[in-house]
Amino acid sequence: MLKLLFLELNHDIDWAVAAVGPAYIAANLKQYGHSTTLLQVPQDMNSSHLADSIKEVSPDIIGLSLTSRQWLRAKKLVPEIKKELDIPIIAGGLLPTFSSEEVLNTEGFDYVCIGEGEQAMLELVNAIENNAYPIKNIRNIRGRGEPMPELRLPFEPIDDIPFMARDMLGEQYGVRHISTQRGCPFPCTYCAAQQISHLYPGGYQSYGRRRSVDNVLQELLQIQNESELNYIVFLDDTFTINHKWVEEFCFKYKKAFSIPFSINARAETVNEKILAQLSGAGCMHIIYGVESGSEQLRQNVLQRNVSNEHLINTFSWTRNSGMIVTANYMLGIPGETRENVEETLSLHKFLKPDDFGYFVFYPFPGTAMFSLCKNKGYLPKDYYDIPVNHRESILNLPDLTKDDIKYYYQCFTELRIANKSEAMPHNLDKKTQQSISEQIQTFANQG
Questions:
Q1: Cβ–Cβ < 8 Å for 327, 352
Q2: Architecture per CATH, 3-143
Q3: Which is the CATH superfamily of the domain at 171-442?
Q4: How is 31-76 classified by DSSP, letter by letter?
Q5: Which residue, among 26, 28, 105, has the nearest Cα to 65 in the 3D structure?
Q6: Domain coordinates in residue numbering, the chain
Q7: Per-10-residue mean pLDDT for the chain, 447 residues long?
Q8: What is the pTM of this model?
């Protein structure tokens, strides 16, 4: 039996829920006798303190699930850890999947996991346990100096994936996080979700999978029996893709639970009927990606084919169904002008969301927009060394200056302060309300 330690590198906020990938991997490894532990790494923890904390755990392997926002901390800390501890270190997640060369060229990283990790990590851990060096030809695993690996087929059936190991998530106040599907059929240029599907033969048709309603409810029942359950956050990019699935879920969930929940949805995937069913089942909060008020920019640049009229109707339907509605906006999008941002501010007045998030666009590796920015020279050559904070742009755009973006970011900030909502469900305690409200700011642009 080996012990795998996952490091969760906190960035802007220390309270955020940990990455779900390690929680799935940990659950699968535990089935085969291995042990896993999560170590939260606060922003102020230096490499020496971190090395001491790792030594206390005494792991056989160290794993990190990395996004672009965590990369600079990882790039700084991992080489220092390696000097102190001669332990194999592997990175997975969005950044290593699409930038494996950059990760493996950084001192301290021995392997990256590309794509799904449950079966690949089990095979790697078993190989390390058996001293099967050099480790080669494990699908989805790339070692230093090795070519891109062959990818194994997506895990099937998806209902056989063990439920997430809750001790790996750092959840608080009874707010629990659930994922019901993998893959996304939509072609948004700023998101890596569909690009992950394209790694696999058949694209979304083979990678896109959704758990059965009964399997999801079984996980919720297990959580309720074992711990506090006050609120459920469904992490799916678009919960409302399949109306037949949603209708079955609403019917069965309402009979089994009375726990409020929130979802992410797309305006083009809902109607008044499905919203009424969600509200009746206990959905209290829906987050919609609006991105821009410019239909031209949204449809031609972001590949979001939805009209302003439909967005306005959707927000109205959601409010009328008794649910809290949140909008997410982006600014600093390639091709965007000051007039386009003014259109977003104007649309906001018509949408009348209860709350909204706003983010400066960042081109994440693996996305179509990343390639566009790189090809057009918008992206600085040292982009891997520039922090990702969603408050200012790293791009050199021809139609919107960095000062323009700062100005409009401040406009959104002042608008949010002036209209700060009291919209969280009042039947929840204050700590739970605060946790839910703060998490709105983390669900978008997580690459």
A1: no
A2: 3-Layer(aba) Sandwich (3.40)
A3: tm_1862 like domain (3.80.30.20)
A4: HTT-EEEEEEE-TT--HHHHHHHHHHH--SEEEEE--HHHHHHHHH
A5: 26
A6: 3-143, 171-442
A7: 95 68 97 96 92 96 95 96 95 97 97 96 96 90 94 95 95 95 95 90 91 98 96 96 98 97 97 98 98 97 96 98 97 97 97 95 96 96 92 96 96 87 49 52 42
A8: 0.91
